[in-house]
Amino acid sequence: MIQISALPAFTDNYIWLLQDHSTQRCAVVDPGDAAPVEAWLAARPGWVLSDILITHHHHDHVGGVEILKRATDATVYGPASEHIPARDVALKDNDRISVLGWEFDVFAVPGHTLGHIAFYHHGLLFCGDTLFAAGCGRLFEGTPQQMYTSLTRLAALPEDTLVYCTHEYTLSNLRFAVAVEPGNSDTVERLAKVRQMREAGIMTLPSTLALEKLTNPFLRAGETSIKQKVDERSGTDNSSPSAVFAALRAWKDKF
Ligand code: ZN
Ligand code: FE
């Protein structure tokens, strides 16, 4: 049984920490800062960091890798097509790796960055800055079409999949989601719940794919009501879901 906890970093990042209590080995996903990981290890003598998983090259995801690598000799996994510090294993689409005895599938999910990858193990998805709770990453490098294809691929995973993304953006994402779909009662309800959680300082992650499909406008670009809303705003006929997605993403960028 592997336990997953969040180590908060910077203002809104989570470094996901996977712990195998039977072997006292652990792994981290996207350690943008080494300090929270080092502090966790220092408080637990006997525990060993054996693996570091990286989704993409942005500093808030890789900033702690070199320090952790020097201190622990963990194996660093990251996308083959991006510059990842101290990377040991270069990953591409459909690769499979073993971490703490668990098999993880690697999916290429370009959009936020061109080389962005996600890690999937039955029911668990580590998706970096691609799919967020009620939102998705900005398009720094890829096209809307690429991102829409990536999100569609993730959305096809089992509905009960837990979504471990990197940022606590859920509240602001839901404010946008409600602006897009004021009549979606699941979204309105989720906003109220998440507002309470954030006021109480509670983390809103992980999410589930089932909940994302109900409330995340970026996974709902095929819905007629969303198409009508963005057509109205842009004054054009967005004829495909990926065109609706592009208009939604552009709207969110200025929201
Ligand atoms: Zn990023
Ligand atoms: Fe990030």
From TrEMBL:
GO terms for molecular function: hydroxyacylglutathione hydrolase activity. Zn(2+) 1 binds at H56, H58, H112, D129. It holds the Pfam family HAGH_C. Pathway: Secondary metabolite metabolism; methylglyoxal degradation; (R)-lactate from methylglyoxal: step 2/2. InterPro entries: Clx_II_MBL, Glyoxalase_II_hydrolase, HAGH_C, Hydroxyacylglutathione_Hdrlase, Metallo-B-lactamas, RibonucZ/Hydroxyglut_hydro. Its cofactor is Zn(2+). Zn(2+) 2 binds at D60, H61, D129, H167. It is an enzyme of class 3 (hydrolase). Keywords: Hydrolase, Metal-binding, Zinc. Its EC number is 3.1.2.6. The keyword Metal-binding applies. Residues 12-167 form the Metallo-beta-lactamase domain. Binds 2 Zn(2+) ions per subunit. Belongs to the metallo-beta-lactamase superfamily. Glyoxalase II family. Monomer. Thiolesterase that catalyzes the hydrolysis of S-D-lactoyl-glutathione to form glutathione and D-lactic acid. NCBIfam families: GSH_gloB. This is Hydroxyacylglutathione hydrolase. The lineage of its organism: Bacteria, Pseudomonadati, Pseudomonadota, Gammaproteobacteria, Pseudomonadales.
